[in-house]
Amino acid sequence: MSVVGIDIGYQSCYVAIARHGGVEVITNDYSERSSPSMVGFTPKERVMSTSAKNQSISNLKNTITGFKALVGRSFSDPVSQSEIEGQPYEAEQLPGDKIGIKVNYLDEAVVLSPEQITAVMLTYLKQITQKALEKPVSDCVISVPSYFTDSQRRAVLDASSISGLNCLRLLNETTAVALAYGIYKQDLPEEKEKSRNVVFIDMGHHALQVSVCAFNKGKLKVLSKAADHLLGGRDFDKRLLHHFAEEFKVKYKIDALSRIKQTARLRNECEKLRKLMSSNATPIPMNIECFMDDKDVSSKMKREEFEDLCKDLLERVKVPILEALRKSGLKRDDIYGVEIVGGMTRVPAIRKIISDIFNKECSTTLNQDEAVCKGCALQCAILSPTFKVRDFAIQDTQPYPIQLLWEINGEPGDMTVFLEGDSIYHSKVLTFYRKEPFVLQVKYKDQKALPVSNSNIGKFLIKGVKANEEGESTKVKVKVRLSIHGIFFIKSATLIMKQQAEEMETGQIEEIQNVESDTKAEPKSDTQASPADSETQSSNSDASLQSQEKPQDDVTDNDTMDSTVPQPEGPSSTSENGQQKSDVSTAQTEKSPATKKAKQTYKHVDLPVDETTYSLSKKVLEEAFEKEVAMIQSDKLEAEKADAKNSVEEYVYDMRDKLEGPLSQFVNEEDKTKLMSLLEATEEWLYDEGEDQAKKVYIERLADMKKQGDPIVARMREFEFRDSSFNELGHVVVRYEKILMEYEQGDEKYNHLSKEDMEKVQEATTAKREWMNSKMQAQQKVPLTADPVVKVSEITMAKENLYAIVNPIVSKPKPKVEPPKDDQAVEGEGGDETGKEENKTEDKMEDVPPAPADPPVEDMDVD
Questions:
Q1: Beta strand pairing status for 393-395 and 219-228?
Q2: 409: Cβ–Cβ under 8 A, 6 or more apart, which residues?
Q3: Does residue 711 register a pLDDT over 90?
Q4: pLDDT at site 821
Q5: What are phi and psi for residue 154, nearest 5 degrees?
Q6: DSSP 640-697
Q7: Phi first, then psi: what are they for 342, rounded to 5°?
Q8: Where is the composition biased (Basic and acidic residues) (predicted)?
Q9: Which of 89, 120, 186, 353 is least buried, going by the fewest C-beta atoms within 10 A?
Q10: Which region, left, alpha or beta, applies to residue 821 given φ > 0 means left and ψ of -120 to 50 means alpha?
Q11: Domain-by-domain residue ranges, the chain?
């Protein structure tokens, strides 16, 4: 199971992985830890991240940026319109008021949704992660802004599904930062002690987010959140952009904002200028060569001018910070520290504002760019069964109140089911009385607090509801929940039907009591009786409905809460004289007149629920996934074709240089001229007809060149290794010749070898000596430009053959000499003494009393 944390930012993305050595941020194809959030489309392929950024100026209309701000939004949303107006690409309205982005891909006009663009970026991040881990990746945790609504969160989940990722949790960015901060702290207060309150401020390129969190050992609780989703680094860059555009209009008589490319270039320069001003108090120059109409432009700005230019933006920084502090119910003195992350928190003016609010210096113990992805990786490790992580509970909250709306008898009704600040992964059970299927509409209560214009969450149709036998309304219990992703859904809907049952009609009523059965709270049968539900509801008015629903507002998260009805108590075990019998576990039979006793029972029936939300339908999701797979396959084929083309180009340049260098002495002039002509022709073909050919064509071209070039390269390699191979063979021959000489001289090491075996050694050694000498003499007569008489592989084979024949003979061990009989007798006596000693030891062991048995150990639960 992979443990991956992904931070998709408005401007850049980061990926962290958890290994047994800790959490680390991986690098992309360009060895950069930061991957630009850009996706580009060309007539041949799609490009992502740094590759997309490198070609963005020349391919502006097909390079998509800022798609994070469009995910989960409608086309008519004012924020969507503002985002689209500032982008060079075209967008259109799709059915359902969805956003479609037009691009030219593979020479075709293609319309993609922001979710599909996000999936493309996730695919790239998945690929670089698989390369780093060297194994497939599926499970991950993805960060989202804390202010994201239900529709935006569903859109991110859809994007992860399209890319083939299994998102275990959508984690709020400020919560991820808090997790990365708290899980390593060893000095947090105990659970019963006063919490440590820390403020986390994340200001990036697009938005400002603030979160107040309380820490105890092994626990993180989010107290409050606030955000300004329209205040980030790009807003400060926009001020600089318009400032310098007006200056250049007066100074150079050019309108930079009238052309898309010039606007993009100036925006990039403004971003660089802002970053330099954050670290330098001196005036920072700006110089752009050949900017517009063949004119070079230049200017400069001081930090004080920048702060004065963005004075109103700096004032807006205070608003969400003070709001989060107010919602938390804490005072400034209750704050332990303020942690800042995000690129814009490097601006000195913003740091000063934060410090002045809390009367504390800002803390930067966390990596300002990578804290979010590391927190996501830690959350993924906590959720993973393959990693053992320190216990650390996270209690996150719901940012906006959610209400339910319905109609009964033509009159509307509503109820707030989740308040702002309620814990996510939280359930509530609601009771309705209906005769027929009904619809629950779910929406956010406060439209003004939302970052989107549409407050609707979805509609849920509760099906299968019907009246009881008397024609009255039946009880329907609906369990609603906020998922771990912060998404609203209906977990279950249950119809509770009353039934009448008769106990016994005979003259005797047998009452059997059993303590064990009476204590069971959840009977296995589908029919359950409940004294609490035995009261008949005589009214179906709205007032009666509210009285049933409103008390449920305080129900906590419990899967079994209100979903099962306790079994009624059995008949009394009291005797006729009023005294309770002592043994209630024994069966007793009491005779009474024949009666019919009615017993009320309840049947629980699960109801189907049809939901209409902003998630993509299963069919649309499958189509988008198939389209993504097709684009991945197209990218793979294009990459293979590019590799084949690069191999041809590389061979041309490499072989041409070597023919003039190390290979020159191994090729004659005729072959050299012929090969050089082929190389030059291939080079011209590459930049003409071979600019865009099929992969097969490049492979064939490379094979044609290697057909002439490989023999030359082979001659050089044979020359380089031939002498060393002959030397190795010669050493082996000399070694065995020395052994033969020692054998003839009667050396004791070899006097056990037979004459027949040594004759074989003599024959093999002499043959290899003659073969080696003949080949060496023949090779000396052959020029370097000709193929060798003998190859290195043949010399190596000759050495191995000689070794296989001779070595088993000369390495035979001498036969073992049997020891004298006297020595055997002495050894036998010693052995007898040893046996006697062993017997004595055994006798002594028999005299030792047995060890007492271990005392009984009490089985105690020490957990």
A1: parallel
A2: 540, 541, 542
A3: yes
A4: 61
A5: -65, -35
A6: HHHHHHHHHHHHHHHHHHHHTTTTGGGS-HHHHHHHHHHHHHHHHHHTTGGGS--HHH
A7: 100, 150
A8: 815-824, 833-847
A9: 186
A10: alpha
A11: 4-231+315-393, 402-503+527-561+598-613, 617-815
**pLDDT score recorded for residue 19:** 85
What are the DSSP calls for 506-529, one per residue?
SSEE-----HHHHT-SS-SSSEE-
DSSP string for 362-429: PB--S-TTTHHHHHHHHHHHHH-TT------EEE-B-SS-EEEEEEETTEEEEEEEE-TTPBSSEEEE
Which pLDDT value is given to residue 743?
87
Q: What is the biggest distance separating any 2 CA atoms in the chain, rounded to whole angstroms? A: 131
- In the prediction, which pLDDT does 531 show? 31
Instruction: With CA atoms as reference, report the closest residue to 44 among 635, 626, 643.
Output: 635
Rounded to whole angstroms, how far apart are CA atoms 432 and 436?
11
pLDDT at 425: 85
Least confident of 274-283, 457-466, 536-545, 636-645: 536-545
Is residue 846 predicted with pLDDT exceeding 60?
no
60 in Cβ contact with 67 (< 8 Å):
no
CATH assignment of 617-815, among 3.40.366.10, 1.25.40.20, 1.10.150.130, 1.20.1270.10: 1.20.1270.10
Mean pLDDT of 52-56: 94
CATH assignment of 4-231+315-393, given 3.20.20.210, 3.30.420.40, 2.60.40.10, 3.40.50.300?
A: 3.30.420.40
| Average pLDDT rounded to a whole number, residues 93-117 | 95
What predicted TM-score, i.e. pTM, was given to this entire model?
Answer: 0.78
**Hey, what amino acid is at 99?**
I
Query: How many whole angstroms separate alpha carbon 656 and alpha carbon 661?
Result: 9
Contacts of 139 (CB under 8 A, 6+ apart): 1, 2, 3, 4, 165, 166, 168, 380, 384
Residue carrying the six token digits 């329907």: 476
Question: Distance (Å, rounded) from C-alpha 613 to C-alpha 151?
Answer: 8
- Burial zone of 769 (CB within 10 Å; 0-12 exposed, 13-18 middle, 19+ buried): middle
pLDDT on residue 599: 67
- Beta strands 90-94 and 488-502, pairing class: unpaired
What are the backbone dihedrals phi and psi of residue 842, each rounded to the nearest 5 degrees, phi first? -65, -40
CB contact burial 198-213 (16+ within 10 A = b; e otherwise): bbbbbbbbbbbbbbbb
Contact 568, 531 (CB under 8 A): yes
Total Cβ atoms within 10 A of residue 370: 22
Assigned architecture for domain 402-503+527-561+598-613: Sandwich (2.60)
Instruction: Determine the Cα–Cα distance for residues 630 and 287; give it in Å rounded to an integer.
Output: 44
Q: Which two tokens stand for residue 244?
A: 């310098």
Read off the pLDDT band of 499 (50, 70, 90).
confident
Mean pLDDT over residues 189-194, rounded? 92
